[in-house]
Design brief:
193 residues, alpha+beta, GMP Synthetase, Chain A, domain 3, 3 domains, three-stranded antiparallel β-sheet, three-stranded mixed β-sheet, 12 strands, 28% helix
Amino acid sequence: MSAGTRGTALKCAAKAVAGRFAADVSQQGVCNRGRLKFAGGVLYRGMSEHKATLRWERGDAEFSYQKYPRDHTWSFDGGHTMTATAAPTYLGNPANVDPEEAFVAALASCHMLTFLAIACKQKFVLEKYEDEAVGHMEKNAEGKLAITKVELHPKIAWGGEKEPTAEELDKLHHAAHENCFIANSVKTEVTVK
């Protein structure tokens, strides 16, 4: 995106925020209505792609259940690569992240990012947000193993002159949950404790 298009994008987004209409910027820098939308006061693009590349190799290990390696890499479009594995219960390396932990982290992260956006739009100032999220693996209604519940335990340090009441805080979390892209993508019950 050119500097001119980027500037138009910012102006277009500002108009959309101020006027609460959907807008987008074409490649030529023209403000178009209809592609950016609002959910809970949060501006978002109606459709986007998110990619990850996964790589696994057996190496010299025997391909038997007890012996093949569980470690593999996740690479993301920003250039970040990390080593992932299976959960320790399934012979993974406890030093690396497993899909179950990543799932819990994705839900907690999406909730926090949505919460920050909504709180900011309502003129609350946050200094710190910390969450020790917990996912519960158990059999679901179909009798299959699933992470059926994720509990979020956010601890928030507020700044500025305005701090939400208990009722306002509950509404902020409810709006964050309702508009969290990841929570809207799964059947898992997500609760804020």
